[in-house]
Amino acid sequence: MKRLDAGALVVLSGMFALGVGLSETALLYVRPGARLWLDIAGAILIILGLTLVVLTLRHRATTDDDNADADEGEHRHHVGRIGWLLLLPVVIAVAVGSNPLGSYAAGRQNADRTLPAGEFDLEQYLNAGSFGGQAPALRVMDFVRAAYDSEDHDLLADTRVVLTGFVTEDDDVSDPHHFFLTRFSIGCCAADAIAMFVRVELEDHHLPPADSWVEVEGTLRRGPPPEPGSVPVPPILVASDVREADQPNEVYEYPP
Amino acid sequence: MPAGERTETVTTDDGRTDPVDERARPRRLGLAGVVWAYLPVVLLARGSFSYIFEDQVLRNWSTIFISVILQALPFLVLGVVLSATISALVPPSWIARAVPKNAAVAVPTAGIAGALLPGCECSSVPVAGRLVSRGVPVGAGLTFLLAAPAINPIVMVSTAVAFPGQPEMVLGRFVASLLTAVVVGYLWTAFGRPGWMEDRYVDHDHGSTLDNFVSTATGDFLQAGGYLVAGAGMVASLQTLVPQSVFERVGGSGAIAILTMAGLAVLLSVCSEADAFVAAGLTQFSLTARLVFLVVGPMVDLKLIALQIGSFGRGFAVRFAPLTLVTAIVFGTIVGGLLT
Question: How far is A158 from A156, CA to CA, in rounded Å?
């Protein structure tokens, strides 16, 4: 690979990292905390690539014109063609666009997975916040955790709450009055995403379309919490209201 | 891509052959020129392309593909900057003095030193490659390569967070990973042949320190980055096409569960800082099987195998990856059995 091509590829990779890191697009791929590192890495790459280009051009200018090409031959970068693959993520990001993980990815996972670890105290949360007479909003992660918790379960079943997530349709279509409100939790990036499901029971609402974002107000249906060690089924939220919602900026939830 | 120094011979009318300097002919655009000329067209036509690619499968693939690359990129940059610093600023004589010659001492030292590099697997590959190329014993370099992503403080903390109230998982992960890294280092020292490993870490000598640093850093970045993209493509394809539920339905605690979790670690290629959260959720598997997942993941996975091919050649990767996989499964199982 020629040094100028190498420099241009490195600058392009840096611009991609910096461009994504500075925009909200980054949140479709990585945790919010990773954005800063993406910015720094992008800036370093841009500086390295530009320096390589400047050094190469300066070298060329100080070398006799007749020998310029021959000299560049010696000066080739010791990189195979493999480096050109770095164009691929840029081209694919542009061609396919930036999309969050959706119901397709959720359908590839088991619904019967336990949650990423973490602490949540429902009583403290309800007492600490002022919700202005509205039903308190919970993260899907916290709702599921409280529903499985033997102490929080009863309190949750007595409280009307609001959850935000996207719609995954159930494969089992025999009962048309439910869907799965879904949210992903990511530890590092979208490749380690874990889907979290809440089964929403509708009384007289129409089923919202798959992958649309909804805000559901409702109450947990009381049931025995799962035995420790058994694989839990998604908790059931009896919906009193289902509203269309915008896709949130922080499209995933994050364990601590 | 025309190479400047090459000359060709052409046959003239009367049958003699004359050497012709390629420079005398009009410049050809070359593959690189075509790529650069076409790129703006692709980038400016964005709207029309996303209209064509509405397919859910492709969108899912691209999200995972790009997220693996973006997540790894800062660590890769850290790795190549460290590697270039070693190359441009640290003289080989210094390394020769600082690192013990005796592999019996150097290997465990490298294992512990791995705990100091707070990165994931993408930083450790270029750094280990550079160290070996600068005269660190091969076994020690490989132990560092395996230990750094597995036992650094960030990984230990995230494991503790993912398994609250189960400090034995943190201890087990540390002990089993360090043992695996050290044993693989010793095995390679004892049985490895020099011909199995290519040294792709060229030292640049362009006169100035700045030029050497920049040439090394950009060269290493392009080399490792290209393989990272290839690895990310494989990870995205597997995650998109093979449902995880195929693996997860196995469950249980026997040998099959352990092998399934080891296979899952290789195929999913989750970053070592996040794999504990994935393992914590797979409660249908025994703790031992999940420990094997945590030990194998940072040492053998698709993305990492691609990076290793890029750094040390294919002949290296086809021997090193299976050796590490088997060793990691053995120590993960033994340590898991002792702790639970």
Answer: 5
- CB contact residues (below 8 A), chain A span 31-50, against chain B: 34, 37-38, 40-41, 44-45, 48-49
Q: What is the pLDDT along chain A (256 residues), one digit of tens a residue?
A: 888 899 999 999 999 999 999 999 999 999 998 899 999 999 999 999 999 999 999 888 887 554 544 444 445 566 678 889 999 999 888 888 888 999 888 888 765 566 666 678 888 888 887 777 788 899 999 998 888 887 888 888 999 999 999 999 887 766 778 899 999 998 888 888 888 999 999 887 788 888 999 999 999 998 776 666 566 678 899 999 999 999 999 999 988 7
Which pair of tokens denotes residue B71? 């997540």
For residue A245, give the 3-state DSSP assignment.
coil
Encoded tokens for A19: 């461009």
Q: What one-character-per-residue DSSP string does A211-228 give?
A: T-EEEEEEEEPP-PPPPT
DSSP A120-147: --HHHHHHH---TTSPPB--HHHHHHHH
Q: Would you call A82 an interface residue with chain B, using a CB distance cutoff of 8 Å?
A: yes
Cβ of B60 and A101 within 8 Å? yes
Of B67, B229, B281, the CB nearest to A116: B281
Q: What is the DSSP string of B175-229?
A: HHHHHHHHHHHHHHHHH--GGG-----PPP--SSHHHHHHHHHHHHHHHHHHHHH
Q: Indicate if the alpha-carbon torsion angle A142, A148, A149, A151 is positive or negative.
A: positive
Could you tell me the end-to-end alpha-carbon distance of chain A, in angstroms, rounded to an integer?
A: 43
**Which one-letter amino acid corresponds to residue B252?**
G
Closest alpha carbon within chain B to A56: B211
CA atoms of B18 and A118, how far apart (whole Å): 77
Dihedral (CA of B210, B116, B106, B74) sign: negative
For residue A236, the SS3 value is strand
Whole-prediction pTM value?
Answer: 0.83
| DSSP character at residue A192 | G
How far is it, in rounded angstroms, from Cα A41 to Cα B86?
A: 19
> Burial of A71 by CB count in 10 Å (0-12 exposed, 13-18 middle, 19+ buried)?
middle
pLDDT at B227 over 50: yes
| B338/B340 Cα distance (integer angstroms) | 6
Which residues in chain B are contacts of A229 at CB distance < 8 A? Answer: 283
Instruction: Say which amino acid occupies B246.
Output: V
Do B190 and B138 form a contact (C-beta atoms < 8 A)? no
Boundaries of every domain in chain B: 28-198+205-339
What is the DSSP code (8-state) at residue B120? -
Distance, in Å, from the CA atom of A5 to the CA atom of A59, rounded to the nearest integer, reads: 15
Neighbours of B206 (CB within 10 A): 17
